[in-house]
Automatic annotation (TrEMBL), chain A:
The organism's taxonomic lineage, starting at the top: Bacteria, Bacillati, Bacillota, Bacilli, Bacillales
Alphabetized UniProt keyword annotations: Membrane, Transmembrane, Transmembrane helix
Transmembrane segments: 26-49, 61-83, 114-135, 147-168, 180-200, 220-247, 298-322, 334-354, 378-400, 406-429, 450-468, 480-500
Organism: Salinicoccus sediminis
Annotated protein name in UniProt: Uncharacterized protein
From TrEMBL, chain B:
InterPro entries listed in its UniProt record: AAA+_ATPase, ABC_transporter-like_ATP-bd, ABC_transporter-like_CS, ABC_Transporter_VariousFunc, P-loop_NTPase
UniProt keyword annotation of Translocase present: no
One Pfam family in the UniProt entry: ABC_tran
Residues annotated as domain ABC transporter: 2-232
RNA-binding keyword on record: no
Protein name as it appears in the record: ABC transporter
SMART domains tied to this protein: AAA
UniProt superkingdom: Bacteria
UniProt-recorded Gene Ontology molecular function terms: ATP binding; ATP hydrolysis activity
Keyword vocabulary terms for this entry: ATP-binding, Nucleotide-binding, Transport
Length: 517, 241
């Protein structure tokens, strides 16, 4: 029976590949090229430096740190995929109506998810570290022990992800579970930021503060000896088998107890009152409620919201990351305000506008003018971006050595940049929005996504240059240049109404919506 | 064939289904009716083994129903209220999978496929991805998957939603002939005219509790409306007219 299920899953995946649009094929190709040309070489070189250059006393801590980070990251990434298959596709319920045993279904699903989500990455990591340790010690059997070890970690990551998903289903209503877990999966980027923040130089400190793990790894992953290697392989295989068996019994029990529907009692809302408000206010309230009630909405934009915090951290803790170095705190604060506000205004403007595609026909049949729809969306974006960033600026001003003038300039920049750029984001979001039942967070077409991501990347790099250009020769703020830029932004904020007009026309004519699944 | 005894499901503090008792014999078309939120889907999920009852028991074909009883599950099938299809498959790939898991012989499968494709006017459309099908076409595909292996019992949850008139009539006729041949059909629907036309017996559930059961004439007698339609009888028994 497992064969049938795996066959269907494989067929489904092949059909998915076959029906990919050309744009998506190009994006995936680019992604593969980036991984092959940049990410993989970077990982290999960082690991080479750490493994080939470290003294033996630091190896245990380093391996422990690497293991924890890899497991944590892959666990969070796997959560999304498990949620999608277990909750959103309704696949499980359908499979279970067929003569398929819960155990067979678990086995087939687990094999597929394990191979795609964790085994592939952990296997590659095992090969890389194995080869490096083999080179270090001239003992090629270390490659085998490392592969075994990292495959065990891939099972651990899957077990934790399953455990997380199923534990949350026990305490939350089913319809909320996918939101919360998608949110958790979505914020796994925090770990990526974490790696950026910590920086290579801190790895030594962290691994040094971890408990001594040499008793786990010595003889097995380094300082190889046949007894240690064999014992490690046997223990890894046994642990992996035990984890899979435990997981199987846990998941099968959950299938049998009908876990998906178990918590699906709806609370009755007896509040039937409606505010006699203006259409714009009602529409803003609608957007606000949709955002606050759904964790997925938070997950979609959280990386962009938190980006300035990361930029500030990098700039203020790593002077080498910024051209010019020195103590340009004021200029950096302004640069982060400008770059961060552009990024969030573009992304939030686009995502929030594209969200209307899912209920576009409903909006069109309502007695609301397209101009009001656009006005409400613009207001909603301003309300959810500008105050948040102003508050962040206050916090940064209180915590960092930034002058009041720089804080005030930053606040002005946040206001003007958001006013000027949000319409551009709305324009991008209304261009070709996507409606996906299985993945509601996917709202922008591939081309728009790529363009916005490229802009974000450029701004991340440009933030350093922005701060340099706002500095005078003596290190102070260049007030006249700042005043000029602020004036240009004020004019741009006015001119961006042209974007809003274009968005209104799209609301009038109808969005060009791409429907997925 | 189907036996529920004291079947109860409690979610938190809410009782979705309360001590339901009924029995459906072989060869009967049994209509299970109730307003929205009355517990029909919860009951059908418990009968299929998809949801564990809080209390009571379910017996299908003389055996206690459990999800891991694959041999028992080979003798029943289910048409859910929304025609979702597993994965990104074409119609043919989906039916191939169904035929495979139910252990159909190739010859039998080909014969049944030919019959049902003609029956539901689906010839020439089977190699398109299901995601490009209309709701009605998906519904037809799911119904074909549920019927082509001739299960002893078929559970149908709102099977006619989205079907065109011809397919609707064909399905009605098929179900009549199916039960006449000794198979059992458990049907939930809000299309009361359908139940009135083809059901042998009817059970009305309201707020999780079985209200009345019997033939249409027996229900008419209980409602005190000897010549009324099932719709009138249903409203009388659930809402008091």
């Amino acid at each position: 029976m497992i064969r049938f299920i795996l066959g269907v899953e494989m067929r489904s995946m092949i059909n998915y590949m076959k029906t990919l649009s050309d744009a998506k094929k190009v994006v995936y190709g680019l992604l593969a090229a980036v991984i092959a040309l940049f990410i993989l070489p970077s990982v290999v070189s960082v690991l080479s430096l750490k493994i080939l250059g470290a003294g033996e006393e630091g190896l245990g801590g380093f391996m422990l740190l690497l293991s924890l980070a890899a497991v944590l990251l892959l666990t969070l990434l796997a959560v999304n995929s498990i949620i999608k298959e277990m909750f959103m596709d309704r696949n499980i319920q359908l499979y279970l109506t067929f003569p398929v045993s819960p155990a067979a279904l678990f086995a087939a699903k687990f094999i597929r998810q394990w191979l795609i989500n964790t085994a592939l990455i952990m296997g590659a990591l095992g090969i890389i570290t194995g080869v490096l340790f083999s080179m270090r010690e001239g003992q090629w059997l270390l490659t085998v022990t490392h592969i075994f070890y990292f495959l065990l970690l891939s099972i651990v990551a899957m077990s934790l992800a399953y455990g997380l998903v199923f534990a949350v289903t026990k305490v939350l209503p089913a319809n909320k579970v996918s939101e919360v877990l998608s949110f958790l999966g979505g914020i796994s980027f925090v770990l990526v930021y974490g790696v950026l923040l910590v920086g290579g130089s801190s790895v030594q400190d962290i691994s040094g503060s971890l408990p001594d793990a040499s008793f786990l790894y010595s003889g097995f992953l380094y300082n190889f000896n046949p007894a240690g290697g064999l014992a490690g392989i046997v223990v890894s295989a046994a642990l992996a088998a035990v984890l899979v068996i435990l997981l199987r019994s846990f998941v099968v029990h959950a299938f049998k107890s009908g876990w998906v529907g178990e918590q699906s009692v709806k609370r009755r809302n007896r509040d039937a009152s409606a505010d006699a408000a203006s259409p714009v206010r009602t529409l803003v309230q609608k957007d606000m409620r949709m955002t606050l009630r759904d964790f997925k909405e938070w997950a979609v934009l959280l990386p962009q919201y938190l980006l300035p915090g990361v930029m500030i951290f990098i700039m203020y803790t790593n002077p080498a990351a910024i051209e010019g170095g020195g103590s340009m705190h004021d200029e950096r604060m302004i640069a982060v305000s400008v770059a961060g506000t552009i990024v969030i205004s573009l992304f939030a403007g686009a995502y929030n506008t594209a969200r209307d595609a899912a209920h576009f026909e409903f909006l069109k049949i309502m007695p609301v003018k397209p101009a009001d729809l656009v006005k409400a969306k613009y207001l909603f974006n301003i309300m959810t971006i500008t105050p948040v960033y102003l508050l962040a600026a206050v916090v940064a001003w209180m915590l960092l050595p930034v002058s009041t003038a720089a804080f005030l300039y930053s606040s002005l920049f946040i206001i003007l940049v958001s006013l000027a750029v949000i319409p551009a984001g709305m324009f991008a979001g209304s261009m070709q929005p996507v409606v996906s039942r299985k993945n509601p967070a996917k709202r922008l077409d591939t081309a728009t996504n790529v363009i916005l991501s490229v802009i974000m990347g450029v701004l991340l790099i440009a933030a350093g240059f922005i701060s340099v250009s706002f500095a005078r020769g003596d290190g102070g703020l260049d007030h006249s240049l700042i005043a000029i830029v602020l004036s240009v932004l004020a004019v741009s904020a006015g001119a961006s109404m042209l974007f809003l007009r274009a968005v209104r026309k799209r609301y009038e004519k109808g969005f060009n919506i791409i429907y997925k699944d | 064939m189907i036996k529920a005894e004291g079947l109860t499901k409690i979610f938190g503090s809410a009782t979705a289904v309360d001590s339901l008792d009924f029995e459906v014999p072989k060869g009967e078309l049994f209509a299970f009716l109730g307003p929205n939120g009355s517990g029909k889907s919860t009951t059908i999920r418990m009968l299929m083994g998809l949801l564990e009852p809080t209390g009571g028991s379910v017996e299908i074909l003389g055996e206690e129903m459990r999800l891991d009883k694959t041999e028992l599950k080979k003798r029943i099938s289910f048409v859910p209220d929304t025609p979702d299809i597993i994965g990104k498959l074409s119609g043919r790939e989906y039916l191939n999978f169904v035929a495979g898991v139910y252990g159909m012989q190739q010859e039998e499968y080909e014969r049944e496929l030919e019959y049902f494709l003609d029956f539901f006017d689906l010839e020439g459309r089977l190699d398109t991805l299901v995601e490009n099908y209309s709701h009605g076409m998906r519904q037809k595909l799911v119904i074909i998957g549920a019927l082509m292996h001739h299960p002893d019992i078929v559970f149908l949850d709102e099977p006619t939603v989205g079907l065109d008139p011809k397919s609707n009539r064909n399905l009605k006729n098929y179900l009549r002939a199916y039960t006449a041949a000794g198979h059992t059909v458990f049907l939930t629907t809000h299309t009361l005219s359908l139940a009135e036309e083809i059901a042998d017996r009817i059970l009305i559930i309201y707020q999780g509790v079985a209200r009345n059961s019997g033939t249409l004439d027996e229900l008419r007698a209980v409602a005190g409306k000897p010549d009324a339609s099932l719709e009138d009888v249903f409203l009388e028994l659930t809402e008091g007219g």
